[in-house]
Amino acid sequence: MALALTLSLSSKSSHPKIGEKIIQYGTAGFRTLADDLDFVMYRMGLLAVLRSKSTKAVIGIMITASHNPEQDNGVKLVDPHGEMLNQKWEELATNLVNVGDENLESVLLDIIRSENIEISEQGEVFVGRDTRPSGVPLLNATLDGIQDLQGESRDFGIVTTPMLHYFVDETNKGREIWVSSYFAKLTKAFKNFCKDISISGDSYHPKIVFDGANGVGSIKMEMLANFLGEEFLEVELHNAGKGALNFECGADFVKVQQKLPRGLEELKPGDKGVSVDGDADRVVYFYVDDNNVFHLLDGDRIASLVAGYINELLQECKLKLDLGVVQTAYANGASTKYITESLKIPVDCVSTGVKYLHHKALERDIGVYFEANGHGTVVFKTAAVELIQKVANDQSLSSSERKAAAKLDSLLEISNPTVGDALSDILLVESVLRSKNWSLKDWEAAYTDLPNRLLKVTVKDKNAVTTVDAGRKCTAPEGLQDEIDKLAQSYPSGRSFVRASGTEDAVRIYAESDTQENANELAAKVAIKVYEMAAGVGEAPVIPAM
Ligand code: NG1
Ligand code: ZN
Fold first, then answer.
1. What residue segments make up the domains of the chain, in order of their start?
2. What is the Å distance from ligand 1's center to 373 Cα?
3. How far is the CA of 477 from the centre of ligand 1 (A)?
4. DSSP collapsed to 3 states, 149-178
5. Mean pLDDT, to the nearest integer, of 383-410?
6. Domain 452-533, architecture per CATH
7. Does the structure show a pLDDT above 50 at 1?
8. pTM over the 0.85 mark
9. Which atom of ligand 1 is nearest to the CA of 510?
10. Atom of ligand 1 at shortest distance to CA of 328?
11. Would the pLDDT of 339 be above 80?
């Protein structure tokens, strides 16, 4: 008879569970005040070892709270192909984090049994973190968890989230990695792409004014810029670590506030502003015009630019591949219309959360996915890349066909196939702009955004707000959707929806209309309805003065 398995968790008593509040593995893992996370990290270290044993592959743990304020932190697990954690394991994670200390061993044993895990199997976990000071103690808690189940760990120190995803994927593909191999891959592909493109005229400038959100993005951007050299891309660094992380800067601030970040107030007309978020998986572009008016080029713009260009290259190299774009309900209505009607590229709309976009995009030969907030990438099937490379090397074809295929091959090599990656996305955007000899104004001319507003309301229990149809229809509280519909219909081109945030304790409200004033007003009126019907707490939202 087999001996009953027992676990001895020697560090458990150093990481006692605190608080009674149930916490959930949300759209971006666990995320809350850093002070409340020690036991969560320890337990995620334990779980990652089990996941590694179960998949017989390296698993990643990223310690970050992305665009949240500096005092928050969080943790996300990375699956073998560099993708977000499998949904069933998200539930296991939620369960493991919420049990009392006295039941920890038995819940782990349940997982071992239900997942048929061979405990003697090797377990290996890659760990990375953003620049938050709380990252160090939380890393130690994570390492304790890994060690308690005899897992091997490799600590990558401060890295961007997409770098860690890339390292996990590459290692599981049997390739050797080191920190600079990431930069080497990106820069080699970008330089290859730029090979035959000469810059002339006044439209494209190989220079960006970079807002690093005072986070890891600025450290890694500086390294990337050194690898590239100024002739390929000059980078003027701002918010490079002296101020508070994400405070009045970074991609989330710029997208939500629709204004220049702190430190870039003096951006000159014609300069290309670029903001990334606290873990550098999101990016937005912006500029000010001659009248000092701010213009934002967000994730929807990046999706349409990149997908449109890939489509052109496919036509030039006469390859019939299945290309599609994936968006969420937060995509600007004008972008969806432009991509489907002008570019004639199919668009799918999925629930908010990168994992949904990623999986949908993988259904295509080449899938371009972006959230409006600037989180996205290009994914592709290996067979599609092989076809493209075949065309690039087929001497019987015309040189224009071969060149287009070679460009497409480099472009796909620049993209991070595992997850949205601000640095790789910047190089994607720069590739297309350079190739088209476009300024940001040229890029923006493709379509006109519908003015929009994103608000949030704190309520007693955000889970009381439930939705269906990719987050576009609210099913509870009863009657709220009817109120939203009535309000939206009373504004020209009005569209609005609400959903519970997966990363914050709040309900998000999105509204679009023909003018910014109308979008602001519609968003505020819907926010008031949410506040009234879903037990809002704190100060009630107000309608802005026109
Ligand atoms: P929540 O908080 O669930 O809305 C936010 C973003 C998501 C995604 C996650 C992960 C918006 C409206 N929502 O999720 O798109 O990026 O954070 O970081 O931007
Ligand atoms: Zn992020």
1. 2-177, 196-297, 299-425, 452-533
2. 8
3. 22
4. CCCEEEEEEECCHHHHHHHHHHHHCCCCCC
5. 97
6. 2-Layer Sandwich (3.30)
7. no
8. yes
9. 12
10. 15
11. yes
What's the rounded mean pLDDT across residues 489-498? 96
CATH code of the domain occupying 299-425:
3.40.120.10
DSSP 163-227: HHHHHHHHHHTT----HHHHHHHHHHHHHHHHTTPPP-SSS--SEEEEE-TTSHHHHHHHHHHHH
Task: Please report which confidence band the pLDDT of residue 198 belongs to, taking 50, 70 and 90 as the band edges.
Answer: confident
Is pLDDT above 80 for 4?
no
196-297 and 452-533, same CATH topology? no
Confidence of residue 202 (pLDDT cuts 50, 70, 90): confident
- 310 is written with which tokens? 């890939």
Sequence-ordered list of residues with C-beta below 8 angstroms from that of 394, at least 6 positions apart, any chain: 402
3-state secondary structure at position 245: coil
Burial of 7 (0-12, 13-18, 19+ CB in 10 A): middle
**Ligand index nearest the alpha carbon of residue 255:** 1
* CATH class of segment(s) 2-177: alpha beta
Distances (CA, A) of 8 to 53, 54, 107, 490: 17, 19, 13, 63
CATH topology classification for 196-297: Alpha-D-Glucose-1,6-Bisphosphate; Chain A, domain 3 (3.40.120)
Query: Is the preceding peptide bond at 80 cis, omega within 30 degrees of 0?
Result: no
> Ligand 1, from 373, 453, 510: best to mutate by most atoms within 8 Å of Cβ?
373
Comparing C-alpha atoms, which of 442, 192, 485, 211 is closest to residue 308?
Answer: 442
Ligand nearest to the CA of 373: 1
The half-sphere exposure of 174 on its side-chain side, counting CA atoms within 13 A, is 0
At 488, which helix (H) or strand (E)? Answer: helix 480-489
Active site residues: 66
Enumerate residues lining ligand 1, CB below 6 A: 27-28, 66, 330, 352, 371, 373, 375, 501-504, 508
CB atoms within 5 A of ion ligand 2 belong to: 66, 277, 279, 281
How far, in Å, is the centroid of ligand 2 from the Cα of 32?
14
d(CA 158, CA 160): 7
Per-residue pLDDT averaged across 297-306, rounded? 98
